[in-house]
Amino acid sequence: MRDRLNAALKTAMLDRDKNRLATLRLVNAAIKDRDIAVRSDGNYDGIADDAILAVMSKMVKQRVDSAKIYDEAGRLELAEQERSEIGVIEDFLPKQLSEDEIRIAVQKAITETGAGSIRDMGRVMGTLKAAYAGKMDFGKAGGAVKELLG
Fold first, then answer.
1. What secondary structure letter does DSSP report for 37?
2. Are 85 and 37 in contact, with CB atoms under 8 Å apart?
3. DSSP 134
4. CATH number of 2-90
5. 116 vs 24, 61, 86, 129, CA distance in Å?
6. What is d(CA 121, CA 137) in angstroms, rounded to the nearest whole number?
7. What would the pLDDT profile of 117-134 be if each residue is shown by its tens digit?
8. What is the per-residue pLDDT across 73-115, written as a single tens digit (0 to 9) for each?
9. What does the domain layout of the chain look like in residue ranges?
10. Do the Cβ atoms of 24 and 91 come closer than 8 Å?
11. DSSP label at residue 118
12. 65: burial class by Cβ within 10 Å (0-12, 13-18, 19+)?
């Protein structure tokens, strides 16, 4: 994943694509911040690809929220900038699961964990996060878990 990001960064530099370059630099900075955080735990290799995907998914979610706020405030140029950054980041993320696929995965996780009530939601979500990091909107998954367990 790091190699793909660095290659894309070099390509953006050569193409003089300022927006893509700025977004990729933000992604690299976020990854380096996480690398530094885990280094204090004795891990000097940096974060793994699944953690990189989690960082990038979080960045997309932040930008979706920001774009919504900018739209509501009438700041359309800033909302469009956020959407542009979302597009660049999503180029590196795996395809997101559809709502039907999320429901199927949630049902499978409930069966695997033996969950019977809403109290078991944490175990179900933990199973989902381990299996679908970067591929699933966990906000939607949480709603599906509540619906199926509630």
1. H
2. no
3. T
4. 1.10.1510.10
5. 43, 30, 37, 19
6. 16
7. 899 999 999 999 888 877
8. 999 999 999 999 999 999 998 888 889 999 999 999 999 999 8
9. 2-90, 99-149
10. no
11. G
12. exposed
Compute how many other C-beta atoms are within 10 angstroms of the C-beta atom of residue 136.
20
Fold match between 2-90 and 99-149? no
Contact 130, 109 (CB under 8 A): no
Extract the tokens encoding 146.
């509540």
Say if domain 99-149 classifies as CATH 3.10.129.10: no
pTM for the model = 0.73
65 pLDDT band, cuts 50/70/90, is: very high
- List Cβ neighbours of 66 (8 Å cut-off, separation of 6 or more): 78, 79, 82
